[in-house]
Amino acid sequence: MRLRDRVLVDTGAWLAAFHRRDRYHADAARTLCRLRAERARLIVTDLILAELHLHLLHAIGPIRAAEHLETLLADPLIDEVFADKAVQAAAFADWIQRYCDQAFPLTDAVSFAIMRARGMDVAFTFDRNFAIAGFSVVPS
C-alpha cells in the first residue's frame, strides 16, 4: 500500500526515529524510510518541533538535539506549519472543547485542526489520540 502524498509526523515518531533506545525505534526507522522512498511530503507543526526539541534535550543532550532539529528544518521534504490564532481557535473549539471527554493535548489538537483543514488523513505516530480522532496512522 502506498502512503498518502502528505503525512503529518508527530513528536513521538520523530523521537523514536532519532533515539535508538526508544522502544519504537525500529518501526519508526522503517516507516520513515518508506515515506522517504515514496517522496511523501512530511508535515510538522511548530508545536511538534518544540515538543520534540524538549524531549531530545533530555534524551540525548543539547548538542545532538540541536543537530537533529537543524536536520529537520533544512530538509526539503518537510513542511512546517505554524499554529496561528485561527488554527489554535479551531484546535480548541473542534477538538479540545468538543471532545472534552478525551485528553487531547494542545499539540495534538493543533495537528488535528491542520490535518482537517488541509484534507490530510494520515499521521505517522505512535500516539493513539490520532486514531481516536478518526485519522489513519502509520505504522498500523
Short description:
This protein is of the alpha/beta class and 140 residues long. The chain has 7 helices and 5 strands.
Task: Give a written overview of the molecule.
The chain is an alpha/beta fold and 140 residues long. 56% of the residues lie in helices and 14% in strands. It has one domain (6-138): Rossmann fold (3-Layer(aba) Sandwich), CATH 3.40.50.1010. The protein has helices spanning 11-18, 25-37, 46-60, 62-74, 85-97, 106-117, 129-132, and strands spanning 6-9, 41-45, 78-81, 122-124, 136-138.
Mean pLDDT: 94
CATH superfamily membership: 5'-nuclease
* Neighbour order of strands in the largest sheet: 3-2-1-4-5
* DSSP strand content: 5-15%
The computed structural class is alpha/beta
Radius of gyration, CA atoms, in whole angstroms: 14 Å
Largest sheet: 5 strands, parallel
Helix content: 55-70%
What string, H for helix and E for strand, traces the elements in order? EHHEHHEHHEHE
CATH class: Alpha Beta
- Overall structural domain count: 1
Assign the CATH topology.
Rossmann fold
Unreliable spans: none
Tally of helical segments? 7
N-to-C span:
12 Å
Bulk shape: globular
**If classified by CATH, what would the architecture be?**
3-Layer(aba) Sandwich
Describe the secondary-structure layout.
Layout (H helix, E strand, L loop, with lengths): L5 E4 L1 H8 L6 H13 L3 E5 H15 L1 H13 L3 E4 L3 H13 L8 H12 L4 E3 L4 H4 L3 E3 L2
Parallel strand pairs: 1-2, 1-4, 2-3, 4-5
Task: Please tag this protein with its features.
140 residues; alpha/beta; Rossmann fold; 5-stranded parallel sheet; 7 helices
